[in-house]
Automatic annotation (TrEMBL):
Superkingdom, taxonomy of origin: Bacteria
Keyword presence, Hydrolase: yes
Segments forming domain HNH nuclease: 62-115
Species, as recorded: Phormidesmis priestleyi ULC007
Name this protein carries in UniProt: HNH endonuclease
The keyword Hydrolase is annotated on this UniProt entry: yes
Keyword terms, alphabetized: Endonuclease, Hydrolase, Nuclease
Coiled-coil ranges (or none): none
Any GO molecular function: endonuclease activity
Length: 126
């Protein structure tokens, strides 16, 4: 007595299964890429700086820096208030991301000077 021949799945069934698996893989790849982007954003230098700025250390630094600068903008020397002053990265965050929270690279500017400076390098004046 001989064994019955193996029955193989129909080619169209295999193709359908393959397409379904590919679609699942594509969706999981998209989900993974979205997760990677969220992680990168969380650990971006700007996000790291914004988190530090919101901490007690960041707020205390701003108060102390305001006193060190004698209540004046480090660029134009106009009198500024702590609230409303901008924390400026002397060496721009876009070019020196490793200095995101380095207090030696930070100073207070009035909004006009900070906007004017943008992401340009600037010599420390205060």
């Amino acid at each position: 007595m001989s064994t019955p021949p193996h029955s193989f799945p129909d080619f169209s069934d295999l193709a359908r299964s393959l397409i379904l698996l590919k679609n699942k893989l594509d969706q999981r790849t998209k989900d993974f890429e979205k997760d990677v982007q969220e992680i990168r954003q969380y650990y971006s230098p700007r996000a790291k700086f914004e988190r530090w700025k919101a901490t007690e250390d960041g707020k205390m630094w701003k108060e102390k820096q305001h006193k060190r600068q004698r209540g004046c903008c480090a660029s134009c020397s106009f009198v500024i208030q702590v609230k409303g002053s901008h924390i400026d990265h002397v060496q721009p965050l876009s070019k020196f991301p490793e200095l995101a929270t380095c207090v030696k690279n930070l100073r207070l500017l009035c909004p006009d000077c900070n906007t004017r400076k943008g992401s340009n390098d600037c010599k420390r004046t205060a």
